[in-house]
Amino acid sequence: MTAFWILAPIMVLAALGMLFIRKAVHAAMLLAVVMLSLSVLYLVLNAPFLFATQIIVYTGAILMLFLFVLMLVGVDASDSVVETIKGQRFMAIIAGLLLGSIFVIGLGQISLGPVVGLDAANANGNIPALADILFSPYVFTFEVTSALLITAAVGAMVLAHRERLEPKPTQASLAAQRVRDYADSGKHLGPLPTPGVFARHNAVDTPALLPDGRASEASVSRVLAARGTVRSAPAMADDIAEIEQQIAGAHHAGREASTPASTEEEAPA
Amino acid sequence: MTPYIVLSSILFTIGSVGVLTRRNAIVVFMMVELMLNASNLSLVAFANQNGNLDGQVAAFFVMVVAAAEVVVGLAIIMTIFRTRRSASVDDASLLKY
Q1: What is the band of A96 on the pLDDT scale with cuts at 50, 70, 90?
Q2: Dihedral over Cα of B33, B37, B40, B46: its sign
Q3: Is the CB of A104 less than 8 angstroms away from the CB of B1?
Q4: So what's the pLDDT on residue A244?
Q5: Quick one: which of A25, A38, A99, B66 has the most CB atoms within 10 Å?
Q6: Dist. CA A60–CA B42, nearest whole Å
Q7: Interchain contact, B23 vs A58, CB within 8 Å
Q8: At residue A123, what are phi and psi to the nearest 5 degrees?
Q9: CA–CA separation, A48 vs A50, rounded Å?
């Protein structure tokens, strides 16, 4: 019972938090708290198979599905506070209180007797015992469940499917479009410059430097630029004069050294 | 034994109030999951009380149905969001008029 008295307040608080919290992602996290606490309670109630299933199916699969859809829909899609039906929230709370009091009164009426416990039923292990029940009296239900799962999978595919309205662009049409763009607006034909070209770092957030030392905005992702995490190119290029001097010096020295070689090569031609 | 049933009924009540009050369709769906979990808890608790495993099998079937329901429900929410750019249950009132 210790696990119950520790987990029950946590579960009730998390469920109440789901009721009042604004952001849907936080509600999903609180639901994860409830589900994980529930799995521990299953373990206490002699249901080790359901303990694992609860964690794998509910917390692992269903909750992740919720989070995926939340990310697709947009995490900032928060609840509106405006009531469309007048007094609906008040009525809902009254209905909830009524439902809760019905439960409490009903539970006060019953007497459950001593707890039998599952030690006899789980004598050969919980999972073999569950399998015996699942595949003898409930085998038809089990088969119908497979039909349900197939229907759900097909239904999700039908709902998520979108017909392509225009043909998929081919390599040839993309190339033709690129040349047309060049003719119309003078857009560069080739690929965009990669980040870090001519700069001293090749990280994705370092813009490429143009020959005159300016940063090329086309070389960094628009997302990084919008977030403002692009490194400043001038900071990377502050010693460009010094490097130019070095290059000029090396070039000068190199030309003197290579002059005889080039004349030799040119001589036979 | 009774504390488990009380906890289950509290969670179920919170879930039902949440379904009635929340506006975001995904949060409404989470509340439905909370109600299913609460009923699962009472099923498992009664299995322990009565000493047979039928309750656990029923809870297992509830989990399977919940998984199928979530897949279809979230696909519907995605479809509605794609056409109307909103996941609020109040915006989908086209059948009203």
Answers
A1: very high
A2: negative
A3: no
A4: 80
A5: A38
A6: 22
A7: no
A8: -60, -40
A9: 5
User: Which of B6, B16, B70 is the closest to A96 by Cβ?
Assistant: B16
Q: Is the pLDDT of residue B90 over 80?
A: no
User: Is this prediction's ipTM beyond 0.90?
Assistant: yes
Task: Find chain B residues with C-beta within 8 A of A159's C-beta.
Answer: 72, 75-76, 78-79
- The beta-strand segments (E) located in A157-200 are none
Is B36 within 8 Å of B88 (Cβ atoms)? Answer: no
Q: Residue A269: is its pLDDT beyond 60?
A: no
Q: In which band, very low, low, confident or very high, does the pLDDT at A143 lie, cut at 50, 70 and 90?
A: very high
Residue A47 to residues A62, A135, A189, B52, Cα–Cα distance (Å):
20, 18, 65, 11
- Residues of A with CB below 8 A from B31's CB? 18
Residues A209, A219: Cα–Cα separation, whole Å: 9
Task: Tell me what the mean pLDDT of segment A65-71 comes to.
Answer: 89
Assess contact for B34 and B9: CB atoms under 8 A.
no
Nearest CA to CA, how far is B88 from chain A (Å)? Answer: 7
Interface of B with A in 3-22 (CB under 8 A): 3-7, 9-18, 20-22
